[in-house]
């Protein structure tokens, strides 16, 4: 039986999945495409063996999962991937239109707006075009390809760039998570190696604007990116969004020793 892995369709994440999507005579994995929030739900319901989750979706169930080492999608510059758009001559952002499936990006917007601009707009659930969203709220949050397509628009804030300016750290868009016993060590190595090979082949697999866009991302889960993830969790906890600060635990790490009860 093939292991089922959840992936998304956002362009920024495709190098992570590049090797997994290559045709094989004996494929090891079945790939299930969906938005991050639905992948989180399917992983929770054990419909998936592993999934590429947003940080907040991981945080909600972190006690049940371990992260796969060395693989992620992160950025620390103005790529247009997470944009806050507003109409010209706007004086204040009192309401913000959001797609409820973009959980981490909604938290990112809250943290940046509160920490840098001391505003906390009311969220308005809207899953529609920017024009419709701006007819229902003062500003609109767009994520992934929908945001990138409007990168030339003047009246916007790049929230990843704002996050890095605020913290000096990268923003983590996605991480691999799985239950402890769901994947073998060999399967984990294949998934991680897929991301490493995909990120190194951007120049061969993508061209033009797509290649330039993907070069703004980082796919190696190093210490600095882990610091960015930790700071995101810490700030979300401080603002009351998370009930506690999630542990960041990896497959292959030794579990901490359990205390021995007193006799």
What is the structure about, briefly put?
This protein is of the alpha/beta class and 263 residues long.
Features:
263 residues, D-Maltodextrin-Binding Protein, domain 2, 22% strand, globular, five-stranded mixed sheet, disordered C terminus, single chain, alpha/beta, six-stranded mixed sheet
Explain this structure to me?
The protein is of the alpha/beta class and 263 residues long. It folds into two domains: 3-75 and 170-238, D-Maltodextrin-Binding Protein, domain 2; 82-167, D-Maltodextrin-Binding Protein, domain 2 (3-Layer(aba) Sandwich), CATH 3.40.190.10. The protein contains eleven helices and eleven strands. The strands form two sheets. It has a six-stranded mixed sheet. Helix 4 (103-117) packs across helix 7. The protein is globular, with a radius of gyration of 19 Å. It starts with a strand and ends in a 25-residue tail after the last helix. Residues 255-263 have low confidence and may be disordered.
